[in-house]
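--- STAGE predict ---
source: upstream dedup step, 1 unique chain passed
mode: sequence only
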Amino acid sequence: MTSSVGFIGGGRIVRVFLDGWKRSGNWPSRVVVSDPETKPLEVLHAAFPEVVVVRGDNVQPATQEVLFLAVHPPAAKGVLGELLGRIPPATLVVSLAPKLTITEIAAALGGFERIARVIPNAPSIVGAGFNPVSFSPGLPDVDRQALAALLAPLGRRPEVPEPDLEAYAVLTGMGPTYLWFQLYELLSLAESFGLGRAAAAHALGEMVGGTLRTITQSGLSPAEVMDLVPVRPLAEDEETFKSAYRVRLRAVFDRIRPAVAG
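--- STAGE serialize ---
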């Protein structure tokens, strides 16, 4: 992997991508990160001394071969306006944010067409990510291949229709947060029952993987799957969990859904 890469925004997902590339031994030829704040840049540079960090100068990362927009949607339009006419024609612009469509990005950049969108996934940090991607119409194969090479060390990178990206943002982009606290609690309880940490983590991973395979491969209905185990200690709490999912995640989806068709 030799592409030079720029990031506008120095937050969590940048750390995930950089850590994923470093762990896999697939480091780009050059990485430049800009952010308006000093602290995230100091944190990044301490962890990755090879990264060039620049405060408040978004043009430097924008002149790399691939530019990742790692900013929240409310800030994205201001950043795009700043970059109008300042991105080299051969640069590939990749948005990591929901809501802002390829059409809107192109319009904000004065008709710039080399654009892709990715919904990033935190397990990319260990090469186990699921990072759906959509491309602008007619994007050259060389750009698609360049992005594929950058995403490959991070995990799977399916190409999906752009209108599906916000659903993936809720399901996979934010999905780990719905499970982490529960899985950590199960690990802690298993240790309190006498299992060692390594044994508990192995058993938990096997259980979670087997549970998903049962859902997707058994051919059973949801009711039949959930009837496979006779004891359900959390049965009385299940409706509370399901209600929280329906109410809170629907609200998130409605908030990040594009205002206009992309």
